[in-house]
Amino acid sequence: MDDDDGWRQFASVLLKAAGYKVTISAKAYSTDNYSQYDLILIDDILAEGDSLAVMQAIAAARTIRKTVAVSSNPRVERTKVRMLLGLHNLLPKPYTPASLLHEVKKALEAVR
After folding, report:
1. Complete edge-to-edge strand list for the sheet that includes strand 40-43
2. What is the pTM of this model?
3. If phi over 0 gives left and psi between -120 and 50 gives alpha, with beta otherwise, what is residue 34?
4. Cα 89 → chain centroid
């Protein structure tokens, strides 16, 4: 879940090239069934949405453990609130292809 920008395109192309099936979120940044996904990748700062509200919905659906957040501004206060929801994976931007693939692999292994 990310804005329609270069980072979303970068992550999508990279993950598809690595063999992952990628679903791009709609502008509402939500779904009726978060559990249908093996992993949720969300930008911590959404231009047209509230990432905390989305993460709260993900947590309420009991799928926060399979969520990786990326952030261009991983401030302690923001990170603490998200960790209290159960988020364990935060990848700072700018990230490299290797760091994104490593974080995705690590997160998938943790939920299996």
Report:
1. 40-43, 67-71, 89-92
2. 0.86
3. alpha
4. 9
Nearest Cα residue to 68 out of 97, 43, 96: 43
**Of 63, 7, 71, which Cα lies nearest the Cα of 43?**
71
**How many angstroms separate the CA atoms of 46 and 29, rounded?**
9
Is 42 in contact with 2 (CB distance < 8 Å)? yes
Cβ neighbours of residue 58 under 8 Å, at least 6 residues apart?
A: 34, 40, 42, 64, 67, 85
pLDDT tens for each residue of 48-84: 888 899 899 999 999 888 999 998 887 888 888 888 8
Residue for token digits 């609130």?
81
